[in-house]
């Protein structure tokens, strides 16, 4: 999904006047950087699960505290995901103006920077 998002961003940059080669190179670099970071965070998450379970068994002789912590963390992640992605297109949590790449046509239908209508 990340490469697709940045491919659409490259199209927006080309439409804004940037050369296609430069736009693709810039968005490919950003996409690859994000994928590397996401992979590192995922690996760190695997280590954190192991350490948390080990500490829970060491102190309490039970995995219940670890799973309670995991559940709370996943609920937090779900709330952040909802706040970031489940809003109506173009709506901002801070009530500010729309992002320059997101808007609506004259009928009020929202669209992304790739001009694909979402509703």
Distance between the termini: 20 Å
Going across the biggest sheet, name each strand in turn.
1-2
Following the backbone from N to C, one meets helices and strands in this order, namely HHHEE
CATH class: Mainly Alpha
Number of beta strands: 2
Domain count, please report it.
1
Annotated CATH homologous superfamily: MFS general substrate transporter like domains
Helix content bin: 55-70%
**DSSP summary: helix tally:** 3
CATH architecture: Up-down Bundle
User: What would you call the structural class?
Assistant: mainly alpha
CATH topology: Growth Hormone, Chain: A
The biggest beta sheet reads:
2 strands, antiparallel
Q: Supply Rg.
A: 20 Å
* Arithmetic mean pLDDT: 81
Tell me the overall shape.
elongated
Uncertain parts: 101-106, 113-119
Strand content: under 5%
């Amino acid at each position: 999904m990340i490469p697709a998002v940045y491919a659409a961003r490259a199209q927006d940059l080309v439409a804004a006047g940037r050369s296609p080669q430069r736009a693709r190179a810039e968005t490919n670099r950003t996409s690859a950087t994000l994928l590397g970071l996401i992979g590192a965070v995922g690996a760190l998450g695997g280590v954190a699960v192991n350490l948390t379970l080990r500490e829970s068994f060491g102190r309490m002789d039970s995995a219940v505290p670890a799973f309670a912590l995991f559940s709370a963390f996943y609920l937090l992640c779900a709330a952040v995901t909802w706040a970031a992605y489940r809003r109506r297109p173009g709506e901002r949590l801070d009530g500010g103006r729309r992002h320059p790449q997101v808007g609506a046509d004259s009928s009020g239908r929202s669209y992304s920077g790739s001009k694909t209508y979402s509703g």
